[in-house]
Amino acid sequence: MAGTYTQIYIQIVFAVKGRENHIAKAWRDELHKYISGIITNKGQKSIIVNGVADHIHVFVGLKPTMAISDLVRDIKNNSSKFINDRKFMKGKFSWQAGYGAFSYAHSQIEQVYNYILNQEDHHYKKSFREEYLDFLQEFQIEYNEKYLFDWIE
Questions:
Q1: Residue 95 per-residue DSSP state
Q2: CA–CA gap between residue 99 and residue 44 (Å, rounded)
Q3: Where are the domains of the chain?
Q4: What is the topology classification, in CATH, of domain 16-124?
Q5: pLDDT of 60-69, one tens digit each?
Q6: Strands 100-104 and 55-61
């Protein structure tokens, strides 16, 4: 789109169906690289993809030619197929419905990058539930508890 200039940075968070710990360390990096490739192939900028056994954080520079919901749908569909085709786990892998998407300013890129980079260390101190609810409160997003992820405590 000629004459269109944007700066849109979005952190997307989504979880494994049932919040199971299915994303094994043995193939986690391969999954993150694959998701980064999906983002790039969709014409978006992959800044960082990282997560732990039960959820993923994706940080993207989003162009206005793609809706966040379309990008998340494509990431989830293609990465589920990738995991299942390679038989990384017994049974069928799938992502939980829904996701969180949070916007940031250019001045926050390094801070968000480092936060996502250090997910394992971060989750020694805070559960995914605590982390996600903190995001919703920080960004002043109204929510209904019954529509949030299935929590495992």
A1: B
A2: 18
A3: 16-124
A4: Alpha-Beta Plaits (3.30.70)
A5: 999 999 999 9
A6: unpaired
